[in-house]
Amino acid sequence: MIVQFSIVPLGKGPGIGDDVAKVLKIVDNSRLSYKITPMGTVVEGSWDDIMGLIKKCHSLVLKSGERVVTSITIDDRKRRKNMMEEKIRSVEKRLGKSLRK
Amino acid sequence: MIVQFSIVPLGKGPGIGDDVAKVLKIVDNSRLSYKITPMGTVVEGSWDDIMGLIKKCHSLVLKSGERVVTSITIDDRKRRKNMMEEKIRSVEKRLGKSLRK
Amino acid sequence: MIVQFSIVPLGKGPGIGDDVAKVLKIVDNSRLSYKITPMGTVVEGSWDDIMGLIKKCHSLVLKSGERVVTSITIDDRKRRKNMMEEKIRSVEKRLGKSLRK
Amino acid sequence: MIVQFSIVPLGKGPGIGDDVAKVLKIVDNSRLSYKITPMGTVVEGSWDDIMGLIKKCHSLVLKSGERVVTSITIDDRKRRKNMMEEKIRSVEKRLGKSLRK
To answer: Where would a tag sit more exposed on chain C, N or C end, judged by fewer CB atoms within 10 A?
Structure first.
């Protein structure tokens, strides 16, 4: 399954780059394949690996603050691997052109 | 923490009430406090209890289908209990009137 | 269609009840049917009426702050009215019991 | 502001690539700057331009089906332009390394 998540600390100022950097350091050090986007991080793996990772990130951001809002979207399709690459490739193939990524 | 989640099966027809009913039966039988809304279910509890519940629901819906999209939003605030009731009460108090729930 | 939305100001402290109250005052004064939940507001109506309402709320919250994250989920089903009530009623009917709302 | 959106048709089979392709054709032909990700499309522009684009995409997908669930997340920060590029660049700068995109 692939999962997008984003972690937003409340009560820390409008810029949240320090927290995002801490989160992405954890993601980058995990063994999961991932992609960062302007609105969150997409990871691919099993439920337990991914939710373990997100729990770790969420807890770390909450530790230095008062309140955290975390959003998670799961796309789980039977018998599919490498959905992260395949979903984009399949759409580009249908359109017969490369899109901005 | 309080968590809203919704589980949408793809490839099963436009009506998904049977799957929603199966999910809410699990939620209603859990020991977690919950509220159903027109767009999802809100539960209150610990990370592990809630994520265990959502994993159970997500897996059940996927079992009878091919693909499931699950959305989860977590609102986690230190030292707060009964956020589910308190958030609504606090806004009604500020407005000095009761709102439609 | 029915639409859930939530508006989260960043950089204003962990409590956001004042902004939520301002938003709900606008919603309550609109002619749209609505329901507040612990994680957002659900409204029913046309695309233009609902998006006009959310734009007004989003702009008001941004005016007194630096950054706002707004989440919107739309459930749009042909030939359906009163989805807000019907979705919950239909699940309770399937389960043969009343659920916590 | 930058906005991520995804449009999921219900009742059309587990694969939704044809609809995604139709949506991305509209996005690619608009004048808005955009990025596709494995979980949605991110666009940058004004409220009216972006919401007009999403309405067009949502309506097109609904036309050939019965039900559509559309998710939208808005990140709106005063006095910021090119947030789509800047958010990723700023995190990479903090970490002193390039991340997978």
So the answer is: C
